[in-house]
Amino acid sequence: MTASQKPAVASQQTLDVDVLVIGGGLAGGTLSLALAQNGFQVATVDTEDTKAWVDRGFDGRASAIALSSKRVLESVGIWEVLESETAPIKEIRVADGHSPLFLHYDHQQLGTEPFGFMMENRSLRKALNVLVPKCEGLHYFAPNEVVTLDRSKDGVAATLKNGTKIKARLVVACDGRGSKTREEAGIRLTKWDYKQAGIVCTVEHEQSHNYCAQEHFLPNGPFAILPLPGTAEKPGCRSSIVWTERADLWPIMMELNDEDFLEELEIRFGDFLGDLSIVGPRFAYPLSLQYAETYLAERLVLVGDSAHGMHPIAGQGLNMGLRDVAALTEVLFEAHHTGQDIGSGLVLENYDKWRRFDNDLMLAVTDALVKLFSNDIEPVMFARDLGMAAVNQIPDLKKFFMRHAMGTVGELPKLMRGESL
């Protein structure tokens, strides 16, 4: 039974819950499970049909799950369901165009754990479809939408498109970059366009990627080759491509026929893994950076892409969203068990303070990387190549960056440390 088939509260009936989550996707669905499994009554509303969102034509993107994010998914049972559809990231290789200098990380330099795992986004959605209907205390409405939302000092009242009325103490906006909930709350957004798009597709290749994630910095933007699980016969012969292209060129690339598109892809990919073939459809996503001026309003808090959106150059978008999930779950759990109102400003400020610096820092880092590497200015190229070579030669600095790739740097919530609340 999928989430969309789970019996919901009948029309015109009022459902009383602790938390209303608007948006039940990758971050919102994980948050809903985490809260419900830790004693909260949760109502989650998503506009998408959960039967359709696992189709290969729905979303071609794949995500890198850092080691710390994997622990969050383990804590709610998602990892057990999707593990067979993930590939470990054992090595990371970063190269600047055709320069002979590069940066190379090997997980064995830190221990036995991989840096993280690659998965198709649809795999996480499939896992949500398995777990959500079984979760006690979680009421999931999809496809549906919130048509009225009233927030006051006393609580939250919402009406859904199907007529269901919901009362809650807190509403969480997980409805993405274009969050209607954030907009209606009057929270201002800072945003700029990179004038780039990420062309995304999946390829099969003759030779194994050996679970190495590769990123080549080209003048028009980064070109990433990310390891996916293959077939039983060829387990390491499938990769996700994130090809960043200029705004004036990506529509031309997307309009090419399959043969010409593959030829352009091969120029950037190279022949180190043998012959290539494209598997499934291709997608293009315009790239931008955005961040909300605050993560909270009266009885409202922002999580994931509703709060912040970054360039995929470092593969950290979903990881930062899962950090939000882990932090908010911990803040609300502690507030509840000390008798506090989970929707109060004092409680929500703890979440905002915890997450804002970390998210702002990652936004700044990704923005700087885009500006540093999306050009072919010779002095800049020379300086960045020397920088990568230097990191390779300084063991302590290199290990710090590797731990950062694992997501184990900073003040981690308990779920990211593998601890229960």
* Inertia-based shape: globular
Average of pLDDT: 91
Secondary structure class reads: alpha/beta
Query: Which segments are poorly predicted (pLDDT under 50) over 5 or more consecutive residues?
Result: 1-11
- Name the beta content range: 25-35%
Question: Looking at this structure, what is the CATH superfamily of the largest domain?
Answer: FAD/NAD(P)-binding domain
How helix-rich are the residues, as a percent range? Answer: 25-40%
What's the number of domains? 2
CATH-scheme architecture of the largest domain? 3-Layer(bba) Sandwich
The CATH class of the largest domain is: Alpha Beta
Question: Would you tell me which CATH topology of the largest domain applies?
Answer: FAD/NAD(P)-binding domain
Compute the CA-based radius of gyration. 22 Å
| Spatial separation of the terminal alpha carbons | 29 Å
The number of helical runs is 11
* Major sheet details: 8 strands, mixed
Biggest sheet: strand arrangement: 7-6-15-16-17-14-18-21
Number of E-type strands:
21
Task: Please characterize this protein's 3D structure.
The chain has helices at residues 26-37, 67-75, 78-82, 121-131, 180-184, 250-255, 258-269, 317-337, 345-373, 378-393, 395-406; strands at residues 14-16, 19-22, 42-45, 62-66, 86-89, 91-96, 102-106, 116-120, 138-141, 146-152, 155-160, 165-168, 170-173, 189-205, 212-218, 221-228, 238-246, 276-292, 296-297, 300-302, 308-309. It has eleven helices and 21 strands. The chain is globular and about 60 Å long. Strand 2 (19-22), helix 1 and strand 3 (42-45) form a beta-alpha-beta unit. Mean pLDDT is 91; it is low at 1-11. Helix 1 (26-37) packs parallel to helix 4 (121-131) and helix 1 (26-37) runs parallel beside helix 8. It has an eight-stranded mixed sheet. The protein folds into two domains: 3-56 and 66-82 and 117-191 and 290-374, FAD/NAD(P)-binding domain; 194-289, D-Amino Acid Oxidase, subunit A, domain 2 (D-Amino Acid Oxidase, Chain A, domain 2). The chain has 421 residues and is an alpha/beta fold. The longest helix has 29 residues, at 345-373.
